[in-house]
Each structure stands twice: as structure tokens, then as C-alpha cells.
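A reminder from the course coordinator: this example appears on the midterm review sheet, so study it carefully.

Given structure:
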């Protein structure tokens, strides 16, 4: 390995899903669990995670301004992602931290690609450019029927964002997009039935991550 290509030692775990899938609660619980096991954990989110990226998040989710073209939306997301990757995620991984990120690249493919209908190849190229090809080792996809997820979100009208307000058809395309991604990468993306009661989803996540970490550590120690 060259002097500049420092290998990161931390693990990047991302949580994905449609609106009202419960992933944010599960991300918090997962972080508490991993911290209790003695891991150094960083809980972060996208869009966001740095001062500038959080500002871009506010612009992206605000529904009071002018309409935002899908391409503009994608560019803002990639801008936020680059800041987040450079300033937060990569440095943490280099320190050996386990990074738990609420949404990442798969959301862009699902929302901007399958949902908005932007060209998937262009999105993939731009995403590689924005992330420097950084990809999560493990992704938990919280899957919930669109009607269930939206009714959870719409029960909280005050916190509804610009994307929550999209038509049900849009959210169905996003969900189907997530399914396509999961079928394509079954080793990385684990689908979790998020229509189950909260506690049972938490138990599923704990067991899945515990088993995954065991296998991952075995695999990486063999490589050393
Ligand atoms: P959430 O994190 O509270 O779910 O809200 C973030 C919103 O941003 C959500 O509606 C999905 C959307 N989003 C995209 O459309 N593309 C992306 O790449 C990311 C990270 C989020």
C-alpha cells in the first residue's frame, strides 16, 4: 500500500428506508448497544453531519421556497455528502470508529434515481465522485408498506418535510427502488421488516448486527 492510501480500520454501517420506517429510533438504539459493548461509535446522518451539510439539509427539506429541480436536489445532496465524508466519516473510520449513518448513498439511488427518475448511471458516477467510492460494509434496510410509513409520518404534521409531502406513488417507487438495490447486493443490504412492533425490530437488529460483526471480524482477522 502506498504512503497516501491509508487503509481505514473502522466500520461504516448505514440505515436506510422510506418515510416512517423507524430507522432513526433504531439507529439510536443500535449506537447505544454498540457503545455498551465497548465500541467507539459515531452516530451521524444524511443529508447532514457537518455545519454546512446541515445547512444544505435545511434547504433540501424546506417546503416553503421555490420548487427544486430533481437535478438541483441531487447536486445539493452530493455536496452535503462530500463535506460529510471528508470532514466526519473518513476521519472517524481512520481512527477505528464504528460509524452508524442514518441514510447514505442508497437513499440517493432510491429517492433521486427510482423516485425522481434521474439517470441511475449518472447518479452512480456522481456518487462515486462525491464519496471517493466509500461504501458501507453493512446496510440495514427498514422496510415498511408505504401506507403504514406515511401514516406514521403524517401523524406528525409539524415535522413533515418537503419529501414527506410527495405523492404516495413517489414513495412506492422509492420503496421498490430500495428492494431492487437489496436484491442486487444481498450480502451488504439486510432487509428488516419494520412493520413489526418497535421492540421486536430492535431485537432483530441486535441479533443481525451481532452475527454480522462476528463474521466480519473473523473474515478481517484471517486477512491480516
Ligand atoms: P430523514 O433523514 O428524516 O428520513 O429525512 C431525510 C429526507 O431526505 C428523506 O425524505 C429522504 C431524503 N433524502 C434523499 O432524497 N436523498 C438522499 O440521498 C438522502 C440522504 C436523503
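Designed residues:
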Amino acid at each position: 500500500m502506498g504512503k497516501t492510501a491509508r487503509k481505514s480500520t473502522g466500520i461504516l454501517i448505514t440505515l436506510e428506508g422510506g418515510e416512517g420506517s423507524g430507522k432513526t429510533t433504531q439507529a439510536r438504539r443500535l449506537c447505544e448497544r454498540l457503545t455498551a459493548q465497548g465500541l467507539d461509535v459515531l452516530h451521524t446522518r444524511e443529508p447532514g453531519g457537518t455545519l454546512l451539510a446541515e445547512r444544505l439539509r435545511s434547504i433540501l427539506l424546506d417546503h416553503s421556497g421555490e420548487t427544486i429541480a430533481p437535478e438541483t436536489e441531487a447536486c445539493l445532496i452530493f455536496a452535503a455528502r462530500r463535506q460529510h465524508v471528508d470532514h466526519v466519516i473518513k476521519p472517524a473510520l481512520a481512527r477505528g470508529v464504528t460509524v452508524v449513518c442514518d441514510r447514505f448513498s442508497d437513499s440517493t439511488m432510491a429517492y433521486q434515481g427510482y423516485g425522481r427518475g434521474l439517470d441511475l448511471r449518472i447518479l452512480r458516477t456522481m456518487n462515486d465522485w462525491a464519496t471517493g467510492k466509500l461504501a458501507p460494509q453493512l446496510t440495514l434496510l427498514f422496510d415498511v408498506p408505504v401506507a403504514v410509513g406515511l401514516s406514521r409520518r403524517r401523524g406528525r404534521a409539524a415535522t413533515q418535510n418537503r419529501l414527506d409531502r410527495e405523492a404516495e406513488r413517489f414513495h412506492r417507487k422509492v420503496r421498490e427502488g430500495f428492494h431492487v438495490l437489496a436484491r442486487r447486493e444481498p450480502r451488504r443490504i439486510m432487509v428488516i421488516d419494520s412493520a413489526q412492533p418497535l421492540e421486536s425490530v430492535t431485537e432483530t437488529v441486535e441479533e443481525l448486527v451481532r452475527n454480522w460483526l462476528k463474521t466480519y471480524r473473523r473474515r478481517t482477522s484471517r486477512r491480516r
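The helical segments are 23-36, 51-61, 70-94, 105-115, 120-131, 146-154, 168-184, 198-223. The first strand starts at residue 11 and ends at 17.
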